[in-house]
Structure to design on (241 residues):
């Protein structure tokens, strides 16, 4: 079954552009141009994801998100859109349970990559707490521990780790990781993914030169192997990316 996505934005052009891009990517898309209209649609139809603009007339996207979390839509994935990159708005978004936060303007390929990442996480069977080796990821607290002590990860390190850990055994390309975490408008290039993987391995692997968990897929990207063994790790071709 195709994933169903509801796009909520008061700007018709935005709704049309996102509907076209998501439709081309294989998704079924409905649109609503107000919070009230969106709630009516949500009451009648089931969706896998809501793409929700924050700044709208009458009621904001935050109000709809609060209502969704309060009235039986807790498991529905949400990506918030905003024209203002305010730190307090981003913190509120994640406190209310948003899965991602995208600042306008953005490229359509980047946006589609973020949608894929959110839906991939939603379908993952990975629980809130993921344990591997001497490490533990507490996704609800957004913290990582090693040997019982918190590991201080930079935001991008944490995002890459969870993106990989939420899809164990799945090879994810450098391009998809870069688009979903940095975005196409970032001045950094895809090599930034390799550098971040290297520093992440230094923090969570027993031996970063022979990584057990974050494995390189030559010429493509990376794969997380939660059940890997030390013997298997020795087969890693390019440990430092």
């Amino acid at each position: 079954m195709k994933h169903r996505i509801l796009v909520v934005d008061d700007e018709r052009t935005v709704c049309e552009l996102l509907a076209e891009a998501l439709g081309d990517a294989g998704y079924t898309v409905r649109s609503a141009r107000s919070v009230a209209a969106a709630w009516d649609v949500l009451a009648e139809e089931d969706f896998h994801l809501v793409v929700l603009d924050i700044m709208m007339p009458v009621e904001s996207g935050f109000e709809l998100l609060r209502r969704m979390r309060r009235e039986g839509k807790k498991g529905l994935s949400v990506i918030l859109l905003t024209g203002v990159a305010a730190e307090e708005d981003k913190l509120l978004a994640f406190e209310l349970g948003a899965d991602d936060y995208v600042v306008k303007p953005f490229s359509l390929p980047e946006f589609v990559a973020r949608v894929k990442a959110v839906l991939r996480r939603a379908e993952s069977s990975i629980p809130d707490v993921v344990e591997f080796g001497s490490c533990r990821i507490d996704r609800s607290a957004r913290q990582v521990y090693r040997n019982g002590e918190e590991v201080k990860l930079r935001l991008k390190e944490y995002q890459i780790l969870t993106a990989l850990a939420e899809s164990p055994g799945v090879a994810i390309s450098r391009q998809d990781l870069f688009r979903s975490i940095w975005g196409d408008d970032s001045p950094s290039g895809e090599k930034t993914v390799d550098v971040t993987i290297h520093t992440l391995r230094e923090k969570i692997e027993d031996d970063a030169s022979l990584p057990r968990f974050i494995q390189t897929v030559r010429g493509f990207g990376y794969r997380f192997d939660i059940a890997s063994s030390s013997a298997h790790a020795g087969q890693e071709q390019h440990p430092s990316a």
